[in-house]
Structures are given as structure tokens and as C-alpha cells.
Design brief:
It contains ten helices and eight strands. By secondary structure, the protein is an alpha/beta fold. It has one domain: Rossmann fold (3-Layer(aba) Sandwich). It has an eight-stranded mixed sheet, with helices on both faces. Strand 7, helix 8 and strand 8 form a beta-alpha-beta unit. Helix 4 crosses helix 6. The longest helix has 18 residues. The radius of gyration is 18 Å and the shape is globular. The N and C termini lie far apart (39 Å).
Length: 312
């Protein structure tokens, strides 16, 4: 099969083609390169002036303080809210780097968000990231009244690694009997530790490479990667029972390493009786909306996310 990058995205990606890529296993190299790119891209996009942030902290079982940043639109009425989990392959990124995207979601929809600054691998391997994320959900539910949030209308949302964590939090909330979630919004989620062997037809187009994915999953799981004992709370694609989960919105680009695992997860959710909305974006690599935010495909994707955020 012959793949073609969306023409608008291709123009944006062309200057990035010659950027040296860190070797497989080089976490620090990826942090340096990708976090710098994220910061540069963020600086080019508008920052809403009608969103106020407030920092809180929750304490994990091991005593670590986890930053929880609350984003609320000025004058917004009480109602739903979402827990947001940032991307970065479980090894990089932060709430601070996502201030702009999260604030834009809140400004566009009026739905406030709590972003959990979960700890990163390899310094904090599984289960630290997902437990930090779940701690954020517990905190949001416990403080719903003071924040003006309807506790029956809380969603979990994330992109890339954050999308995988969002799916895992939905599994944890089901299995630990709460807090109940109204939606899971999974934006090109990272779900399966077994996606490490390059697809020769897809590999030339991916923005998050198979080497990146191998590096990230190894950092999170160590020598358990690809083995029989990986927890579904680390890699939600490993879950055998998807019944009883909240309605799901799942999207992924056609040229994304996560395409097949995301499609399979959406199909399995639907087969388990979960309401699912799925979008496959033609010609779009991973995180296309980050570097190509003003392209037609990104505008369509953002419009769909805004609609879903306003639907629960």
C-alpha cells in the first residue's frame, strides 16, 4: 500500500526531516530534542486570556507530591470537568509544556480541566505514572463541590502516552469501583507495548518512531516489555475485559505508529458493549495537531474534540 502525507502537514514536516534522531534507548536525548520542539511549537500558538490556572498538590502513597493544575474559564457555570493527561511517551513532557493546549480546550468549550503532572519513566516506572493519574481523578472527585464540578460528569482525556494513561485510568476506575467516569477521550493513545517491530510501509512516515516506542516502553516496563505478564494498567491493549467502561472517543492518524492498536482497541470496546466514536485521519502522522495546528485535518480533529467535551 502506498501512503501519502497530508499536503499541508507535508509542508510543515519537510524542514524537520534532517533533524538527527537519538539512538534507541536514549531517553535523555529524546527529552532534549522533543521537549525543545514542543516548547517552540507552543510559543507559536495563541494563549487564551480567559483561562485562569490554580495549582494544587496531592500526595502519592510513597509520599511524593504530585502537581495538579486546574484550568477554568472565567465566568464559566458549574458543570462537567475533565482530568487531562499529557503526552510524551511516558518519558518526557510536563503539565507546563501543555499549558497552551489545555487552556485552549478550556477556552473553546468552557469545560474546566485538571492536569496531573504524573511522574515519568525510567526514574518512575510502572505503576507510578498511572497511579499518579488515578490520584488526580480521586482528587478531582473529592474536590468537585468546591470547584463547581458535577461529580457525575467527569471525563478523562489524554493524548499519546496521556491517552494510554486515560484508558488505564478508566480501567482502574472500573475495577476499583470508582470514581465513575462519564467519558474517556483517547487522542492517538499509546496502548500496546508490543508495537515495537517496524512496519516497513509505515515506518518512513511516522513522527513517533518505532525506536521511540521501544525506548519508551522499555523505560516504563523494563525487561517485562512484550512479555506475558504486562499489566493492562500499564498497556491497556493487554486488557481482556473491556465491558463496563465509559463511552469512548478514539482518534488516530493514518500514519501513526499507534494506528492499528488504536483501531483494535476501539473495535474491542465496541464489541464489549461500550459506546465508541472512532476517527482515522487520512495522511496524518502522530501528534499532527501539535505541529500542524492550523491545517484542515487538525481543525477537524479539534472541532470533534470540542464537541465531545461538550457532550457529557
Amino acid at each position: 500500500m502506498t501512503f501519502t502525507v497530508d499536503p499541508q502537514l507535508s509542508t510543515i514536516l519537510a524542514p524537520m526531516a534532517g533533524i538527527p534522531q537519538p539512538a534507541a534507548g536514549d531517553v535523555e536525548g529524546r527529552r532534549a530534542v522533543l521537549e525543545a520542539m514542543m516548547a517552540q511549537t507552543a510559543a507559536l500558538q495563541p494563549t487564551p486570556g480567559d483561562v485562569v490556572t490554580t495549582d494544587f498538590h496531592a500526595v502519592a502513597e510513597d509520599g511524593a507530591k504530585i502537581l495538579l493544575r486546574w484550568y477554568a474559564k472565567t465566568g464559566a457555570a458549574p458543570g462537567p470537568a475533565a482530568l487531562y493527561l499529557h503526552g510524551g511517551g511516558m518519558i518526557l513532557g510536563s503539565v507546563a509544556l501543555y499549558d497552551g493546549p489545555i487552556a485552549r480546550y478550556v477556552s473553546a468549550t468552557g469545560v474546566p480541566m485538571l492536569a496531573a503532572d504524573y511522574r515519568l519513566a525510567p526514574e518512575h516506572p510502572h505503576p507510578a505514572p498511572v497511579e499518579d493519574a488515578y490520584l488526580g481523578l480521586l482528587w478531582l472527585h473529592e474536590h468537585a463541590a468546591e470547584l463547581g464540578v458535577d461529580p457525575a460528569r467527569i471525563a478523562v482525556m489524554g493524548d499519546s502516552a496521556g491517552g494510554g494513561l486515560a484508558a488505564a485510568v478508566a480501567l482502574l476506575a472500573r475495577d476499583r469501583r470508582g470514581p465513575a467516569l462519564a467519558r474517556q477521550i483517547l487522542v492517538f493513545p499509546m496502548l500496546d507495548d508490543r508495537t515495537t517491530a517496524p512496519d516497513p510501509e509505515l515506518a518512513p512516515f511516522v513522527a513517533w518512531s518505532y525506536e521511540d516506542n521501544l525506548t519508551a516502553w522499555t523505560a516504563l516496563l523494563g525487561d517485562r516489555i512484550g512479555g506475558p505478564d504486562v499489566s493492562p494498567y500499564a498497556a491497556p491493549a493487554r486488557a481482556t475485559d473491556l465491558a463496563g467502561l465509559p463511552p469512548a472517543y478514539v482518534e488516530v492518524g493514518q500514519l501513526d505508529v499507534f494506528r492499528d492498536e488504536d483501531l483494535a482497541y476501539a473495535q474491542r470496546l465496541s464489541a464489549a458493549g461500550v459506546d465508541v466514536e472512532f476517527h482515522l485521519h487520512p495522511g496524518a502522522p502522530h501528534e499532527f495537531d501539535t505541529y500542524g495546528w492550523d491545517t484542515a485535518v487538525a481543525r477537524r480533529a479539534l472541532a470533534d474534540r470540542h464537541r465531545v467535551l461538550g457532550s457529557f
